[in-house]
Amino acid sequence: MHVKKPTNSEDPQRDDMKKKTSCFSNIKIFLVAECALMMAQGTVGAYLVSVLTTLERRFNLQSADVGVIASSFEIGNLAFILFVSYFGAKAHRPRLIGCGGIIMALGALLSALPEFLASQYKIIDSWSKDLGRDVCSNTSKVDELCGNRANTNMMYLLLIGAQVLLGIGATPVQPLGVSYIDDHVRKKDSSLYI
C-alpha cells in the first residue's frame, strides 16, 4: 500500500520548479549549443568563400553573380536583425536561437543541393579553344552546349535563397545568445562565458 505524503500548501512554487527542471535548463548546456551554432555558421561561411571560384566555373556565372551570392547572407541578416533584437528581448531567447539554428540548417542543405541537382562535369575540347569562356553568348554551337542555361539560372537563384536563409537563421545566434548568457551567469563569470 502506497501512502501519499501530504503536500505543503505554503510552497506550491517550489513544487512547480521541481517539475520544470530538466538537464537542458543549464547555462553550460546552452553555452555548448551556442558554440556549436556559431561554429556551424563560421564553417558554412568559410566553405562558401572557398568554393566561389568553383561555382563560377561550374555554373558559368559572372563575377558579379558570385558577389551577389556571397552578399546574400548579409542581406538576410540585415533584413531581420532589428526585429530579432527588439522582439527577442521579450520572447524566449533559447527557443528563438533554436529556430534560427533550424533555419540555418535548412539554408545549409539548400546550398549543398546544386551539387546534387546539377549534371556531372563534361570536358569538351572546343570549350577552351574555339568558343571562349562564355559559350552561351557565342552564336556557334549554342544548341549543343547551352541547353542547360535555365538550369544554371535555377541553381543561381537556389544559392541566393540558401544564403538568405543562412543569414536569417544566423541573426538570433549572436545578439540573443550573448544577452542570455549575460543575464544567467554571475557578473564575475560573464566575461569568461562570453
Automatic annotation (TrEMBL):
<keyword id="KW-0472">Membrane</keyword>
<keyword id="KW-0812">Transmembrane</keyword>
<dbReference type="InterPro" id="IPR004156">
    <property type="entry name" value="OATP"/>
</dbReference>
<feature type="transmembrane region" description="Helical">
    <location>
        <begin position="69"/>
        <end position="89"/>
    </location>
</feature>
<feature type="transmembrane region" description="Helical">
    <location>
        <begin position="154"/>
        <end position="178"/>
    </location>
</feature>
<dbReference type="GO" id="GO:0016323">
    <property type="term" value="C:basolateral plasma membrane"/>
</dbReference>
<dbReference type="GO" id="GO:0015732">
    <property type="term" value="P:prostaglandin transport"/>
</dbReference>
<feature type="domain" description="Major facilitator superfamily (MFS) profile">
    <location>
        <begin position="29"/>
        <end position="194"/>
    </location>
</feature>
<dbReference type="InterPro" id="IPR020846">
    <property type="entry name" value="MFS_dom"/>
</dbReference>
<feature type="transmembrane region" description="Helical">
    <location>
        <begin position="96"/>
        <end position="113"/>
    </location>
</feature>
<dbReference type="GO" id="GO:0043252">
    <property type="term" value="P:sodium-independent organic anion transport"/>
</dbReference>
<keyword id="KW-1015">Disulfide bond</keyword>
<keyword id="KW-1133">Transmembrane helix</keyword>
<feature type="transmembrane region" description="Helical">
    <location>
        <begin position="27"/>
        <end position="49"/>
    </location>
</feature>
<dbReference type="InterPro" id="IPR036259">
    <property type="entry name" value="MFS_trans_sf"/>
</dbReference>
<dbReference type="GO" id="GO:0015347">
    <property type="term" value="F:sodium-independent organic anion transmembrane transporter activity"/>
</dbReference>
<dbReference type="Pfam" id="PF03137">
    <property type="entry name" value="OATP"/>
</dbReference>
<protein>
    <submittedName>
        <fullName>Solute carrier organic anion transporter family member 3A1</fullName>
    </submittedName>
</protein>
